[in-house]
């Protein structure tokens, strides 16, 4: 009994060794799970060079009119632009909402039409031979040149402006979606068919995921064109909206408010662009375009 008890009782050194190993293992487990970085801080870190460049530009812009004696009606400093905006911010934001609704309306219609049409072009030779030449003709026609026709057909109001935004955003989204669907590996599709996979499952699991990177490229290009199209449409056929106010401010030589209007509509376009980019990061986190760049000294 004495020998058996002695064999069962562990020495203090062995207990300390096991305790130290367990603590080290626990510490390793804790170190293996890094803290989740704040999304805003991560975004600012990725864009720090851009933000620093913007600060330098704003400072240089603020100093240039003062040092070079440039008249305010030619190049007002940012401080004057901000002061002018504060004096008309309610009117400006109300007009911005009208322009944003036109922009988003045409952009969303372009998405709804473009992606199914691209899939039909890739899936059917008849649709491809019929639709692609027509798309090519419409692509080379200047969209601003046919804007007066929209006024004749639809009159003034929401519809002609939305149609112009739709046409500007439609073509890059469609062409990118067609390129994405055509880039699907045919060997993977043949393998899926040989295993009896349904058409819907192949589209959902193979075709769409592989085409999404190209589709999102077209969506981001379409955002910029939609923002431009909304303002230009209001130049041509509108009595309200930010484009209309820009024409009014230009006629009054209110250059600070012209700059303010340009900044506001640019901000709207940037916000929508980053919303699309956030959806892209959430949808295709596995794609190489979503990986963080590797430092050169790593």
From TrEMBL:
Subcellular location: Cell membrane
An annotated GO BP: transmembrane transport
Cellular-component GO terms for this entry: plasma membrane
ABC transmembrane type-1 domain segment(s): 96-276
The organism's place on the tree of life at top rank: Bacteria
Record has Transmembrane helix as a keyword: yes
Pfam families per the UniProt record, alphabetical: BPD_transp_1 (PF00528)
Membrane spanning residue stretches: 49-74, 94-122, 134-156, 162-184, 215-237, 257-276
Keywords recorded for this protein, A-Z: Cell membrane, Membrane, Transmembrane, Transmembrane helix, Transport
Cross-referenced InterPro entries: MetI-like (IPR000515), MetI-like_sf (IPR035906)
Residues spanning the signal sequence: none
Membrane topology qualifier: Multi-pass membrane protein
Protein family (similarity comment): Belongs to the binding-protein-dependent transport system permease family.
PANTHER family: ABC TRANSPORTER PERMEASE PROTEIN HI_0355-RELATED, ALKANE SULFONATE ABC TRANSPORTER-RELATED, MEMBRANE SUBUNIT
Record protein name field: NitT/TauT family transport system permease protein
Organism: Chelatococcus asaccharovorans
